């Protein structure tokens, strides 16, 4: 099986470039495509007017149509599209319904799955506190222990308060570019220490389950 994995930012790519092999082993192939933000699903599911901006949800109708045509043109090649993005403050059911609306409108329809990090990708790091502590031995235990897995609580802010000097207030004051750089650093430093089987994030476990189901990994 070949996996085309779509993520909303560079930190997501850095994390999944490391994690996917841990989940499905080396018998399958994958490539993680990063975009420059999550964006929003276009009204009436029309294609984005400015695809060059590489905003994930804005381009999703066009992307899935393209994958549908590609997959139908090589039926003997097993491949699937996996969308990985943050829920943020959206309603999970409504968001998933919108995503499947786009998928079902494709003709031909590609093989695709949607895996939503709840609330944000940092929830997958916080699902493995041992990995966080290994990467950041001085991380604040009181902050980490107060986190409830996959809760809507300001997830990246929680991780920033635990591992960054001065916490989220100091990091946020540096601007969004600094926040993005720090998120990429977390992905690079925490992900190598993560143990897939013991992760407590339900949305991460769902992602792992889908990947293993599709790849035939027990």
Structural overview:
- The chain has 218 residues and is α/β, with parallel strands linked by helices.
- It folds into 2 domains: 135 residues, Rossmann fold; 75 residues, no CATH class.
- The chain has 10 helices and 4 strands, in the order E-H-E-H-E-H-E-H-H-H-H-H-H-H.
- A 4-stranded parallel beta sheet has the order 2-1-3-4, with helices on both faces.
- Strand 1, helix 1 and strand 2 form a beta-alpha-beta unit.
- The longest helix has 18 residues.
- It is globular.
Give descriptors for this structure.
Rossmann fold, 10 helices, 218 residues, four-stranded parallel β-sheet, globular, 4 strands, alpha/beta, single chain, 50% helix, 2 domains
Q: Widest sheet: strand order?
A: 2-1-3-4
Share of helix, binned: 40-55%
Task: Estimate the strand proportion.
Answer: 5-15%
What value does the Rg take, in angstroms? 18 Å
Q: How would you summarize what this structure contains?
A:
By secondary structure, this protein is of the alpha/beta class. It has helices at 10-24, 56-73, 92-104, 122-126, 129-135, 141-145, 155-163, 167-173, 176-190, 202-215; strands at residues 2-7, 29-34, 79-86, 112-117. Strands 2-1-3-4 form a four-stranded parallel beta sheet, with helices on both faces.
Please outline the helices and strands.
Layout: E1 2-7, H1 10-24, E2 29-34, H2 56-73, E3 79-86, H3 92-104, E4 112-117, H4 122-126, H5 129-135, H6 141-145, H7 155-163, H8 167-173, H9 176-190, H10 202-215
Parallel strand pairs: 1-2, 1-3, 3-4
Helix pairs in contact: 1-9, 7-8
């Amino acid at each position: 099986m070949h996996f085309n994995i779509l993520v909303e930012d560079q930190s997501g790519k850095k994390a999944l470039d490391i994690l996917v092999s841990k989940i499905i082993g080396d018998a399958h192939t994958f490539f993680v495509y990063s975009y420059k933000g999550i964006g929003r699903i276009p009204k009436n599911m029309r294609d984005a007017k400015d695809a060059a901006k590489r905003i994930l949800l804005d381009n999703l109708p066009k992307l899935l149509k393209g994958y549908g045509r590609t997959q139908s043109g090589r039926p003997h090649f097993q491949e699937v599209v996996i969308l990985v993005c943050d829920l943020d403050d959206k309603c999970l059911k409504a968001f998933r319904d919108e995503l499947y609306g786009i998928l079902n409108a494709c003709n031909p329809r590609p093989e695709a799955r949607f895996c939503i990090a709840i609330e944000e990708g940092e929830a997958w790091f916080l699902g493995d506190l041992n990995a966080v502590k290994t990467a950041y031995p001085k991380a604040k235990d009181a902050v980490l222990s107060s986190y409830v897995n996959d809760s809507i609580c300001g997830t990246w802010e929680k991780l920033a308060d635990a591992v960054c000097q001065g916490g989220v207030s100091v990091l946020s004051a540096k601007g969004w570019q600094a926040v993005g750089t720090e998120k990429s650093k977390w992905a690079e430093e925490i992900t190598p220490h993560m143990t897939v089987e013991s992760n407590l994030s339900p949305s991460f476990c769902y992602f792992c389950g889908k990947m293993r189901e599709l790849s035939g990994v027990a």
